[in-house]
Amino acid sequence: MADTEGLKVAKNYHLDQAFANNKPFFVKGANALDWGMQKHLARIFNPKSKNTVMFAFDHGYFMGSTSGLERLDLLIPELQDAVDVFMGTRGALRSCVSPAFTNSIALRVTSGSSILNDDLSHEVVAVDIEDAIRMNADCLAVQTFIGADGQLSSLDNLSKCVNLGQRYSIPVMGVVAVGKQMERTSRFFKLATRMLAELGANIIKTYYCDNFDEVVAACPVPIVVAGGKKLPEKEALILAYKAISEGAHGLDMGRNIFQSEKPRTMAKAIGLIVHEGYTDEAAYEYYMTH
């Protein structure tokens, strides 16, 4: 029984102030989600900037050891205070990421063939929801292949994960895959991002393209832009600035961070654009001088 001795009687009810928790939720398209789902999204997206910096290091699930990711155990600690979200596989997270780090977790839950196979589009859901819950994942990352041979099965993977995510209040990030034969046009990205959002994905990871502001406008949930291939640092920061300026709510950089000569500084420079409103020129100056 609680000790009631000396307990003060409640008296300050602030009768002159309306109930404070009455504002729409700050993440795009998430007003109707329950508290647990919104709590995960609030860990992914910064409540002040409404944006996020993700660090993708899930390449090993189909590429094996990748240049720059040979020693995750050494790289991850260097970046843990420079990014908001770690995006990786459960194996990499459990073996190389300290549970003491407070970063949000985007858990890669689909997997498929290796780069030794010409067709990577046939993936399966490889992580069950119980393990995602055990890992305290803030979102389930599901690769989708619109326009590829594996389109139907990857959309089935997405739908299954959305159903499980709704059941257990874990958001789903639909990742738009672009194969060698797929067009990288605004027409394609409008189709792909809208499809994934309509199927229930709470976040869409996709690529920057011409008319990107139209892609963003047509998508009812936040878009996070993938870094894609390694670019010179100045070009990568221009990409980041254009994406944020045209409505993206974050960057998910992999190779443009871990293959940079200064990964930590590059991650921080991206964060200045994403969260602080820096231009690409100002962010590049930061990169060059730190």
TrEMBL record:
Pfam families: DeoC. GO terms for molecular function: fructose-bisphosphate aldolase activity. It comes from Amygdalobacter nucleatus. This is Fructose-bisphosphate aldolase. Transmembrane segments: none annotated. The lineage of its organism: Bacteria, Bacillati, Bacillota, Clostridia, Eubacteriales. It comes from the Bacteria.
